[in-house]
Amino acid sequence: MASTIRVRAILNGDITDVQTLIQHPMDTGLVKDAKGEIIPARYIQQLSFEHNGKAVFLADWGTAVSKDPYVKFAFKGAAKGDELKVSWVDNLGATDSLTAKIQ
Amino acid sequence: MRTRPTLSILTAALALCALIGASSPAALAIDAVDPAADAKAFRDFFVKKFPQVKFEDFVNGPYSMNEDMRKQWKDKEQFPPYEFALEAGKEMFSKPFKNGKHYADCFENGGIGVRQTYPTFDEKEGQVITLELALNRCREVNGEQPYSYVKDEMAQLTAYMAFTSRGKPFDIKIPNDPRALEAYENGKRYFYTRRGQLNFSCASCHVQNPGERIRAEVLAPAFGILNAMPIYRSEWSGMGTTSRRFTTCNSQIRGVPLEPQSLEYRDLEYYLSYVSNGLPISGPGARP
Amino acid sequence: MTGSLATRRLILKGVGAVALIGLGQVSFEASFGLMPALAAANDKYPDDAFKQKNAADAIKALYGRDHEASDKVKLDAPEIAENGGVVPIAVTTSLPDVTSISFVVSENPFALAASYHIPDGTVPAVANRLKMAKTCNVIALVESGGKLYSATKEVKVTVGGCGG
């Protein structure tokens, strides 16, 4: 099954620019469906980025992060071809993970 | 909102003919229908009204009209919300049907880089064929069920096809056939006719008030308005086709929406695409 | 004819005086009795902070300290969100030793929207897309050298359009 995670990690000088888009509904638990029933909360709580086994970024998210969440950040110390591991876990315990190569 | 009448005398005469039930081409003053002149007048109107907008930028709808919105859009285009639909569309397009054939077999150039030629006028059938119609026909001819015209798979497929045509200018042809001219005029008439409880024509918003707000939304110019299709709308939290937008707009002006891909909608799309000839395809797009 | 659908026809909620969250009155050190640990030192999901309703309580639960406005925190957010469900908001800062960056949307049902751990070697800048329930202040918080700084901007959120 295709990953929910899309990553672009590009080296610019000594800084790696990372952009991520994740396919996830980020349901708040406050919205009702067409039948008038609450759509249960389902949202990514933690999103982590690891390079060479070290955490380079950790996001703690609440329900106010948009559907198909996006985040952009940058870090130093990587080289072209290095691996960047991206993982998330949501409030229901679902997870997904992807390892991307730094371009 | 008070407006000047937008129907030209010619179009009013044509509307009258239609009411009388004159459906034969002979009743149409064909020699008075000049799509090329229309397109030029349409283009000149918008270019003159918005001298600060770069020509290609008209395809960006409200983003060509409002700086604050443009900035938000550019931000999101770094990793756009239609990304997943586009990927899904590409995958779907290359997957064979149960009988082994592909979408590519139904289109010129295997369906790659052809979106800008749709809609076309099919002279055999005597009607306008849109890209979505062509795709469903392709499916049916190959033993598959047709898709809904408004979203999901149809939006994903057209997102991919539009993407392969990005940058190519709209190149809609009107053959020298009275039925094609009639379809064009029918679309033009629809565009300028008021409807719904709010009594708006397409022109009321998109010709008379682009850049202005209707309640909280900034209106897009009609020139190039279909170039970004299909679109991911934040309002829909998802993708939608031209059909989705036509039907929802009809509802929003408190009119009765037609069936997606009905004759009038296809003629409307034919007209709107033709008068935007020369503007580049920018789809799939994102909108508020 | 132009102007009858002019900008002032916007249905703007909350236009008027900007209500800045004044947090300078409470001394957290006094109420807690000890210096609160840095938010970044703990990788545990700050469940409690995300459950707080208002900005003051969320910031207290997350950082346990006061924040002061700083022009070294640059908050980038639109004047009027094109859609309250997806508002692109970013922060950059020239402050040193940044360990944490967070975003609070003051009138959301739960004020804390997102919090980011910034380890050594990571640039102190984040761009994300947040939901905003209505016109209100967005507060960007930056934990630098053990202290908390902020920048605040009002973002207008409109409701009701025609998909135009």
Describe this structure in words.
The complex is a heterotrimer of chains A (103), B (288) and C (164). Chain A has 103 residues and is mostly beta strands. Chain A has strands at residues 5-12, 15-22, 44-51, 54-61, 70-76, 83-90, 95-101. Chain A is built from no helices and 7 strands. In chain B, a hairpin with a 2-residue loop joins β3 (213-214) and β4 (217-218). The radius of gyration of chain B is 19 Å and the shape is globular. Chain C has 164 residues and is mainly beta. Chain C is 12% helix and 34% strand. Chain C has helices at 28-32, 47-51, 55-63; strands at 68-69, 73-76, 80-81, 87-93, 98-105, 112-117, 125-130, 136-144, 147-157. In chain C, strands 1, 3, 5, 6, 8 and 9 form a 6-stranded mixed sheet that branches. A 3-stranded antiparallel sheet of chain C has the order 2-4-7, with no helix packed on it. In chain C, 44% of the residues are buried. Chains in contact: A-B, A-C, B-C. The interface between B and C is medium-sized, with 36 and 30 residues.
Distance between the termini of chain A: 24 Å
What number of domains of chain A? 1
Structural class of chain A: mainly beta
Helix content of chain C: 10-25%
Biggest interface found: B-C, 36 and 30 residues
Regarding quaternary structure, what we see is heterotrimer
The string of secondary-structure elements of chain C, in order, is: HHHEEEEEEEEE
Count of alpha and pi helical runs of chain A? 0
Main sheet of chain A?
4 strands, antiparallel
Main sheet strand line-up of chain A = 4-3-6-7
Choose one word for the global shape of chain C. globular
Number of strands of chain A: 7
Q: Could you state the order of secondary-structure elements of chain A as H and E?
A: EEEEEEE
Distance between the termini of chain C: 18 Å
Backbone structural class of chain C:
mainly beta
Low-confidence stretches of chain A: none
Biggest pleated-sheet summary of chain C: 6 strands, mixed
CATH architecture call of chain A? Sandwich
The CATH topology of chain C turns out to be: Immunoglobulin-like
CATH C-level label of chain A = Mainly Beta
Cα Rg of chain A = 15 Å
